[in-house]
Amino acid sequence: MQRGLLASGVLHVVLIALTLVTLPRFTDLPPPAEFIPVDLVAPVTGETNIAPTVKAEEPVPEPETKPEAPAEPQPQEMAALPLSPAPEPEAIPEPAPQQPRAEPTPEPPPAEEPKPQAEKPPEPQVKPRQKPTPPKPEKPKPPKPEFDLDQIIGVIDREQKPVPRAPGEQRQATASDRTRPRAGAGTGLSLSEIDAFRSQVSKCWNAPIGAPNPEQLIVEVRIRLNEDGSLQAQPEFTDPSRYSAGDTYYRAAAEAARRAIIQCAPYKLPVDRYSMWSEIDVNFDPRKMAGY
Amino acid sequence: MLRKLLAAVAMCVGLIGLSGVTPAFAQLKVNIDDANVRPLPIAIPDFVGDPATTTTAADIATVIRGNLERSGLFQPLDPRSFIEKIQDINVPPRFGDWRIIQSEALVTGQVMQQADGRLRVEFRLWDVLAEQQMVGLQFFTTTENWRRIGHLISDAIYEKLTGEKGYFDTRVVFVAESGPKQRRVRRLAIMDQDGANPAFLTNGQYMVLTPRFNPTAQSISFMSYLNNKPRVYIFDLETGREEVLEGFPGMTFAPRFSPDGTRVVMSMEREGNTDIFVMDLRTRRSTRLTNDPGIDTAPSFSPDGSQITFESDRGGSQQIYVMNADGSGAQRISFGDGRYATPVWSPRGDLIAFTKMKGGSFSIGVIRPDGSGERILTTSFLDEGPTWAPNGRVIMFSRSAPGASGRSQIYSIDLTGRNERLVMTPGEASDPAWSPLIR
Q: pTM for the complete prediction?
């Protein structure tokens, strides 16, 4: 009887403990299945985006001849010529990324520039494309939790004993870490680590102030990072349709967000929890800035 | 035994977990709501030219750098810091070279003389960090018109990087002042928004006040004392012709065009009472909009033409009101300390700029049309008469210094209140009116 009571008590305690502590660990599942190993289309060196505008010999609305009025030039004599949708096939011959550029004049400093990358002082912006890191096949996913009783027992055991830390791992869980709320279930990063990331991005974000309706200029950017915190690829807008919808304010806001991400890379994040931050959705919200 | 029990519990929990009760994998999301707002570093090397256009190519780049710098939103970098020398704008720049000097955007351009003598000006704006072209345009014009090309390119860059239409291809009419304060000569004058190409439109024989552009920037309404009688005139910029708006029994003043340009709203004083009238320019029929013993003046349409803001002392002190365009539903919107005057509706519609008088000084401020969010942008001994840039982000106004020798000059300030600039004018100037974008 007493044994039964004890067992029941223990059971309850364990259940509560599991719910409070263990469960989040259980749910740190690998990224969702729809995660697609990125292959961000063509090299993003810029030239693919060159609208053939400048080459296009579009008939230009002839500016009206200037009236002789000496006082001041007549307006309306010249229209801005938005040539943007010039015929696609006129694509400017893709100039090879950078090296093979035929530099016609012998410029003193970049004489023959063997490898732009190597020459430059180390820059914070790591070029995503040229990164020597071999294309990661897939993130090293933690083994899928199979339903193995022994393993589960192991988990329970771990909850009971302090987990031995890896030799190099410095970080000690402090009381404040335990009491501080986590930034979100399953993120695996402490609030202070997220704060550090946040302030790193904020520093580079030149928010669009002064635009009307800032609540409509919230931009979410998905970034994929390498273990060293550098960008694996160009940041992507999670709502690309809005980006291309023609709202110039939104587009400018989105591009400012993208510049911030690129400019501030690489990011300082705990390597031991790389799987938690290998992909981050960064939400740029300019509302607070809008009050000038 | 206990181990087994715990295992069983764990199993149950595991089952619950697998059945979907637990939250799914959470994508790490981080919200950024704090920014480091600063002028955007932009590199604008001199444009590439052929032997005939080298000077013009450099001059256009200078105009662009000046425009963007004055806006307060950009920081054009010193060309001496540039590493890459742009020689062909049809080859992508070496982005790394521009990143090293902290440039976030790059403008490349070239100016060529065509067989017919005209200029062909091309430019590209690059996002240095994303390594992408943001816009590429070309323009054709006569040689002497190179300055406007600089303004048009500035507008295109500004729009791409801020989302807002630019305001550089615009002009400003103002009252050019000369002579002692007691016997001031006030002439109607016009110039580009950057102070270039100034010209007088009237000869100073009679006094000119409150000039305002029509929506196509083709004509200007103003008030003038001809034979000591104030009247509203319309001046046609193309023909140089001026015409008086007749048909009013009293003195008319403070005219302003409706957004569609078909009407002029103004004040008329008669037997000591001032009310607001609107005149249809096609039929020349005028309609009374206010009928009140107080002084109602300085009317200004909302950009959609549905409402009018004006100043009135009907409530005992000079305040700002908003009413429907037919004169109905007038509501007071200013409730701060002091007196308010010369309300002007922003072309963007979101704000009304005003002059505020309080404690012996004058300020320029903005307020939302519903009366909320009043902000003072600048204050001095005498700041007055705000006028909006066509994009609703910058305001010009007159500033006068105290004393008999105090100068009267035009200043601009942006909506942040942080970027105040003196606008260069030939001599003293007041009462500026910013044109819409020139088309």
A: 0.72
HSE-CB for A233 with a 13 A CA cutoff = 19
Q: What is the CATH number of the domain that holds B185?
A: 2.120.10.30
Contact list in B for residue A147 (CB cut-off 8 A) is 14, 18
Residue B330 lies in a domain: yes
| Chosen domain end from B162, B188, B212 | B162
Q: Under a CB-based contact definition with an 8 Å cutoff, are residues A235 and A279 in contact? A: no
Q: Which residue among B104, B131, B162 closes a domain?
A: B162
Could you give the C-alpha distances from A263 to A36, A118, B133, B401, in angstroms and in order?
25, 19, 17, 45
Q: Which amino acid is at B283?
A: T
Distance from CA of B228 to the nearest CA of A (A): 28
Q: Is B94 on the interface with A (CB under 8 A)?
A: yes
User: How many residues are there in chain B?
Assistant: 439
B74-to-B65, B123, B170 alpha-carbon distances in Å:
9, 18, 19
- High-pLDDT (> 90) share of chain B, %: 72
Task: Verify cis geometry, omega within 30 degrees of 0, for the bond prior to A266.
Answer: yes
Site from B9, B12, B28, B158 to mutate, A interface, most A CB atoms within 10 angstroms? B28
How does residue A1 score in pLDDT terms, banded at 50, 70 and 90?
Answer: low
Taking residues B69-79, report their average pLDDT: 96
Interval B333-345 mean pLDDT: 95
Answer whether A152 sits within 8 Å of B145, measured CB to CB: no
DSSP one-letter code for A289 = G
For residue B29, give Cα distances in angstroms to A221, A224, A263, B234, B434: 10, 12, 19, 59, 45
Interface membership of B11 toward A (CB under 8 Å): yes
- B119 DSSP β-pair partners: B113, B141
Q: Is residue B144 part of a domain?
A: yes
Q: What is the mean pLDDT of chain B?
A: 90
Cβ proximity of B210 and B253 under 8 Å: yes
What is the span of the domain harbouring residue B316?
Answer: 171-434
Domains held by chain B: number: 2
